[in-house]
Design brief:
The chain has about 325 residues and is an alpha/beta fold. It is built from eleven helices and twelve strands. Helix 3 runs parallel beside helix 4 and helix 4 crosses helix 5. The longest helix is centred in the last third of the chain and has 15 residues. The two termini are about 25 Å apart. It binds ligand PBG.
């Protein structure tokens, strides 16, 4: 008989045998930014998350930064009346995201600022590309995404993160950034982004749901694996410095495949809105312990091979981790 239980006799022993750990600096925390001042609008579909005007976001970031989170992902949210067919507000100089990036960089120069590059929050139809004869057009969307990324780079973004799932978007962005003198701005590509029911709460938060149809002609079909490898390979070739798998918790196999195939490229996994809210809602209903379930989900994502995790739980994790670190040095398996 082999005695496995010796590996589990106490929290201290379990800690010694733990193979996977996770730390606050491995998280990326999302912000939804709106125009105006003094706005802090809780998002009903995403418990614990709010839409902020820039001034309020900067205040909130004091906590984020003091917790040890080193990177943020910025989404712009605009009013319906500012949207048009072509998503013009996304790539006009002085866009909401450009202003937000500039303000963050002034106050927190050491924080890594990543911006979402996609048209869905800016178009009247809510699709990620422009439309011609009810078709979402690939090639004519590319220059618009590149312009949007340029605005973010000009404002000081460290990474631009194209999430529109248009073919060639990384190449189009890389080329324009290089041409305009922003060779140092890196691209974090949402390379393997699946068409997912787990984005529901986000679309409410960002007011970016498609007004007709779905995103299945551009986002990946969840029955495919090889396409994820192909998407990542193409993005790396086109100039992506980092790549992403999204969603995360329901796509652990894809994370593992991408990490083992492209081990040298930093891999980000997006623990998306629906994955977050499933835990929140279950905990709220008294069905699960939130801390326990949160840690298990986040460590599973890390265990699968993610280097960094985008999560609405980043702050909650940091609070728990920082608290436990004073006591034990790392998260106790007794809390997991
Ligand atoms: C924009 C975008 C989406 C998410 C991130 N960027 C929504 C979508 O593709 O419909 C989802 C994030 C989340 O669910 O937390 N294209």
């Amino acid at each position: 008989m082999k005695r496995f239980r010796e590996l589990r006799t106490s929290a201290a022993i379990r800690d010694k045998y733990a193979e996977v750990s996770i730390k606050t600096s491995e998280f990326i925390y999302p912000y939804f930014v709106v125009d105006g001042t003094n706005v802090k609008q809780p998002i009903t579909s995403l418990h614990g998350i709010a839409r902020f005007s820039i001034d309020e976001m900067l205040i909130d970031m004091e906590e984020t930064v003091s917790l040890g989170i080193e990177a943020v992902l910025i989404f712009g949210v605009i009013e319906e009346k500012e949207k048009d067919e072509n998503g013009t507000a996304a790539y006009l100089p002085g866009s909401i995201v450009a202003k937000a990036v500039k303000a963050i960089k002034e106050k927190y120069p050491a924080i890594n600022v990543i911006t979402d590059v996609c048209l869905c929050g800016y178009t009247t139809h809510g699709h990620c590309g422009i439309i011609h004869n009810s078709e979402i057009m690939n090639d004519s969307t590319l220059p618009l995404l590149a312009q949007m990324a340029l605005r973010h780079a000009e404002a000081g973004a460290d990474f631009v993160a194209p999430s529109a799932m248009m073919d060639g978007q990384v190449e189009a962005i890389r080329r324009l950034l290089d041409e305009k003198g922003y060779a140092k701005t890196k691209i974090l590509s949402y390379s393997a982004k699946y068409s997912s029911g787990f984005y529901g709460p986000f679309r409410d938060a960002a007011q970016s749901a498609p007004s007709f149809g779905d995103r299945k002609t551009y986002q990946m079909d969840y029955r495919s694996i090889d396409q994820a490898i192909g998407e990542v390979a193409a993005d790396i070739e086109e100039g992506a410095a980092w790549v992403m798998v999204k969603p995360a918790h329901t796509y652990l196999d894809i994370i593992q495949r991408i990490k083992s195939t492209f081990s040298e490229v930093p891999l980000v996994a997006y623990h998306v809105s629906g994955e977050y809210m499933m835990i929140k809602a279950a905990a709220h209903a008294g069905l699960m312990n939130e801390e326990t379930a949160m840690l298990e989900a986040l460590i599973a994502i890390k265990r699968a091979g993610a280097d960094y995790i985008i999560s609405y739980y980043a702050k909650d994790f940091a609070k728990l981790y920082n608290h436990n670190r004073h006591l034990y040095g790392k998260i106790q398996s007794s809390t997991i």
